[in-house]
Automatic annotation (TrEMBL):
Protein name per the record: Major facilitator superfamily (MFS) profile domain-containing protein
Domain Major facilitator superfamily (MFS) profile as annotated: residue spans: 39-421
Bilayer disposition of the protein: Multi-pass membrane protein
UniProt keyword Transmembrane helix present: yes
Compartments, as annotated in UniProt: Cell membrane
Database matches in SUPFAM superfamilies: MFS general substrate transporter
PROSITE patterns reported for this sequence: MFS (PS50850), SUGAR_TRANSPORT_1 (PS00216)
GO MF assignments: transmembrane transporter activity
GO cellular component, one term: plasma membrane
Keyword set, alphabetical order: Cell membrane, Membrane, Transmembrane, Transmembrane helix, Transport
Residues that span the membrane, as ranges: 42-59, 79-97, 109-128, 134-156, 163-181, 193-217, 249-269, 281-304, 311-329, 335-358, 370-390, 396-416
One Pfam short name: MFS_1
Length: 430
């Protein structure tokens, strides 16, 4: 349906009449979805499942890196490329995919992305060599690029502003469940049947999520097709990159993900070594801690309501730094507590920053979200690679050092944002 026709058939639209033919008609009620309203639960569950599939596929090899290192005879820094290639492919293609979603629709692009990604996911277990495995993972990441930015743009268009942080938090919660279930399932399956069978199981799980997503997601009612002309796209991107607030949010997302990517890429290697020496199944179960992220992401809206956006970011950064410090202990309970705090802080910070991007962008929301996702997954690739190199050079303390530097960056950027906001308030008062 053309955008003009679709707009005329939206709920609350009225036929044009002259002033003498009808009395004044007030503005139509907001027809976008809200908690408790029609379609909201279906939409939330559909995007939750999309988040599950995305993170389960994207990080399907992360808990299996020691096994992959053993089969192909490579070090941790080389095996980590099976994660970095996927997140890097997503980072590179998220902006072009967002442009396609502006033209062909959010739901169409998300469906196509999941279809290609799950197909590649079923091929990954048959990779004959390390280069082939890395190449397949890069293609899979590129395919998944159509999902994150399109999902947040869909929510910004279809959900009322007051419910947006909560709705995006639920999508991020799906990410955490996908990341957790993928790692827990692969850990136990790999312990019995090897990493290839484990990755194949994740591919089958993602197929089920993709089918349910397509059946459940309501058709968009507020989407207006945009242009695919490169000049228009570049102009939109340039406008977003010239917005200081958006740039700060992009940097915050990248830095938070640098911490998270580094910690969870290396933690399996640390826990297989002394003094822990844990089996693969137990290491996979460590990722049940992702449930903490499910809670912290879904409650991010209330945190912002209580502390404000910058206060919530300070809280998330402080929680993450405390977790990093605790994880240095050679006590398994303290390491697990550290991972709980790192996970809770990361997902809260990510939900706050990503929802702030959607609220800040007044046009080209898919591109604004795509730039955030690109920065976010560049941070993931950097964290996976640099965290593994730091572990190789200085052990777990090296990985923690990289994470603390990234958290310091988050806090510093948030301080700059606080000062900029105060300066604007003084100008407005003057």
């Amino acid at each position: 349906m053309p955008a003009s026709t679709e707009a005329s058939t939206r709920v609350g639209a009225v036929s044009p009449v002259s002033a003498t033919e009808a009395p004044y008609v007030p503005d139509a009620p907001d027809s976008r979805m809200a908690p408790g309203g029609p379609g909201y639960r279906r939409m939330s569950f559909a995007l939750f499942l999309a988040g599950v599939a995305t993170f389960a596929l994207l990080y399907s090899t992360q808990a299996l890196l020691p096994l992959i290192s053993g089969e192909f005879g490579v070090a941790a820094s080389e095996a980590s490329w099976t994660v970095a290639a996927a997140t890097g492919g997503l980072a590179l293609f998220v902006l072009p995919m967002s442009a396609l979603s502006e033209r062909f629709g959010r739901r169409t692009v998300m469906t196509a992305s999941l279809a290609v990604a799950v197909t590649v996911g079923l091929l990954v277990p048959f990779a004959p060599s390390m280069p082939a495995l890395v190449a397949l993972r890069a293609v899979q990441g590129a395919a998944l690029a159509g999902l994150p930015a399109s999902a947040t743009a869909y929510l910004a268009e279809e959900v009322r502003p007051k419910a947006l942080v909560t709705a995006i938090g639920l999508f991020v919660a799906g990410n955490s469940v996908g990341g957790m279930s993928g790692r827990v399932i692969t850990g136990w399956v790999a312990q019995e049947w090897g990493w290839r069978v484990a990755v194949g199981v994740i591919g089958a799980l993602a197929v089920a999520c993709a089918v349910a997503f397509r059946l459940l997601l309501p058709a968009p009612r507020h989407f207006t097709a945009g242009s695919l002309r490169p000049r228009v796209l570049l102009g939109t991107v340039r406008a977003h990159l010239s917005n200081p607030l958006l740039c700060r949010l992009y940097a915050i997302g990248a830095l938070f993900m640098t911490v998270f990517g580094g910690v969870y890429t290396v933690i399996g290697y640390r826990l297989t070594e002394a003094p822990f020496s844990l089996p693969q199944g137990i290491i996979g179960s460590i990722f049940l801690i992702y449930l903490v992220g499910t809670v912290s992401a879904s409650t991010a809206g209330r945190l912002v309501g209580r502390l404000g956006r910058r206060g919530a970011l300070y809280a998330a950064g402080g929680t993450t730094a405390t977790g990093l410090a605790l994880s240095l202990a050679n006590s398994l309970p303290l390491v697990l507590l550290g991972l709980v705090l790192i996970t809770g802080g990361f997902f809260a910070g990510h939900a706050v920053a990503s929802s702030a991007v959607s609220k800040t962008a007044t046009h080209g929301r898919a591109q604004a979200s795509a730039l955030y996702q690109s920065a976010y997954y560049i941070g993931s690739s950097a964290g996976s690679t640099v965290g593994a190199l730091a572990f190789h050079a200085g052990g777990w303390a090296g990985t923690v050092g990289v994470g603390l530097l990234a958290v310091l960056g988050v806090v510093s950027i948030t301080v700059l944002g606080t000062r900029a906001a105060r300066a604007q308030q003084r100008l407005a008062t003057a």
